[in-house]
């Protein structure tokens, strides 16, 4: 955590509470407060280590969950000048351009991956071996929310992480769904508060990836 994480969360949280006072808030730094029927979910800086090191691969991630369903997702990567937006049933957009996923060739699939401290490192290593043995490539850039957004933009074909918190996952997962992709049911089993597995990607890749990792 950096001072930027705290400052950005305080600023966005204050704005949301001023404009949507009846709605709840869940932030990485300050936790949950307010109504649990409609909740804004914020990661003020996803990719904090990248940010501290001066790398451009970090973002702000904000989602809105209404009665157990994702309704809105926003991811903003300031250093890359990338603004992603998705609303349920309204599509996904990058800097105003509508995103539509295209299915990759089976032998040209690139998977984004994240590693969670809540899962054994051996599981992560085994997942990499599984992907490579299946002829798939993988990338890890250190900011899961932005990697999910880049799946929606077609720069990766799927994303896998054994456990993500909701503030990292939700906005990007809605982007992927609205771009025509497929995601696992992240909000099941109290995923909003506890986090969950993330398996999200192109419609032809996501089930293939799920089957490989289930072996």
From TrEMBL:
Xref: Pfam families: Inositol_P
UniProt binding sites for Mg(2+): 28, 43, 46, 168
Essential cofactor(s): Mg(2+)
EC supergroup of this enzyme: hydrolase
UniProt keyword annotations, A-Z: Hydrolase, Magnesium, Metal-binding
Membrane spanning stretches: none
EC number: 3.1.3.25
GO biological process terms, semicolon-separated: inositol metabolic process; signal transduction
Top-level taxon of origin: Bacteria
Ranges in a coiled coil: none
Keyword Hydrolase: yes
Claim: Mitochondrion is one of the keywords in the record: no
Gene Ontology terms for molecular function: inositol monophosphate 1-phosphatase activity; metal ion binding
PANTHER family membership: INOSITOL MONOPHOSPHATASE (PTHR20854), INOSITOL-1-MONOPHOSPHATASE-RELATED (PTHR20854:SF4)
Family: Belongs to the inositol monophosphatase superfamily.
Identification of the protein by name: Inositol monophosphatase
Gene name of the record: suhB_1
């Amino acid at each position: 955590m950096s001072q930027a994480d705290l400052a950005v969360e305080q600023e966005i949280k204050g704005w949301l509470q001023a404009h949507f006072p009846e709605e709840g808030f869940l932030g990485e730094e300050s936790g949950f407060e307010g109504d649990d029927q409609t909740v804004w979910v914020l990661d003020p800086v996803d990719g904090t280590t990248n940010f501290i090191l001066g790398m451009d691969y970090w973002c702000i991630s904000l989602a809105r969950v209404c009665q157990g369903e994702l309704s809105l997702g926003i991811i903003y990567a300031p250093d890359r000048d990338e603004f992603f937006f998705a609303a349920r049933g309204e599509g996904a957009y990058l800097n105003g351009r509508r995103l539509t996923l295209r299915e990759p060739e089976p032998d040209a699939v690139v998977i984004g991956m994240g590693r969670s401290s809540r899962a054994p490192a051996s599981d992560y290593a085994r997942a990499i071996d599984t992907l490579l043995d299946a002829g798939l490539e993988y990338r890890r850039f250190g900011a899961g929310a932005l990697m999910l957004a880049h799946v929606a933009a077609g720069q990766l074909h799927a994303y896998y992480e054994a456990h993500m918190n909701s503030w990292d996952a939700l906005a990007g997962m809605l982007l992927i769904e609205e771009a025509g992709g497929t995601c696992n049911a992240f909000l099941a089993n109290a995923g909003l508060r506890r986090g969950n597995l993330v398996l999200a990607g192109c419609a032809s890749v996501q089930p293939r990836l799920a089957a490989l990792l289930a072996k």
